[in-house]
Design a protein that fits this description.
Order of helices and strands: HEEEEEEEEEEEEEH
Largest sheet: 6 strands, antiparallel
Distance between the termini: 23 Å
Strand content: 35-45%
Number of helices: 2
Radius of gyration: 27 Å
Number of domains: 2
Shape: globular
CATH class of the largest domain: Mainly Beta
Structural class: alpha+beta
Number of strands: 13
Helix content: 10-25%
Amino acid sequence: MKLKFALIAAVALSVSSVAHADSVTGTLSATYYQVVEGSPDFPGGTPIVPNGSGLVNGLPFVTGGVSSIGPSGELQWWTTANPNVSVTGTGVITLPYGSNMYAPNSTGSNDSRVFETAKFLGSFSLASAGTVNFAVNSDDDTFVYLNGILIGQNPGIHGVTSVSFAGNGLAGLNTLEIFYADREQTGAYLSVTADVQLTAVGGVPEPSTWAMMILGFAGVGFMAYRRRHQTATLAA
């Protein structure tokens, strides 16, 4: 009898908790800027932006490493509060995303005279809470904020470099903000992909789960048969 209940419990558990990964898709609004070559910070140092920090006046909070810092500690590469920065246009992008990042508006072919910076703002929805895994390739600086918190970055001047990191996604609406800056005449590129690892309660079982269920029901049937056989033998 104990084995019977154990098998039923195992089957119920396998049905109620099924882990699977889904690609994160969404549309982000884009604002594009350009910075004249030779301006402070282009090129310059590596900004110090603490992981886990939030946004200040809608911009990354920086504690040092560069000079383009506002009065509240905001990094001013994406605002005309920096006199060397000008807006070139707006648009939309979709995840997954990948593109050369040459001014104006990622439509140019080189960065010989100006550098492009861009910020992308949007949201996506999740059926349940889960871990969101990001993969970013960029030349140069990139900062990714999930629900207003910096979860990963690829700072400094470098060739196309790959980084990966994860953040906690919420059930329902999640906000996503990505800040990009090209700062040297050696190329400009950004790609971002993401997937979320969910635990679906009451979802459709995967093949391995079906196998566990079949074995479980077979065990329950065998125990029932054995019990009936023993009862019949004792009666005889």
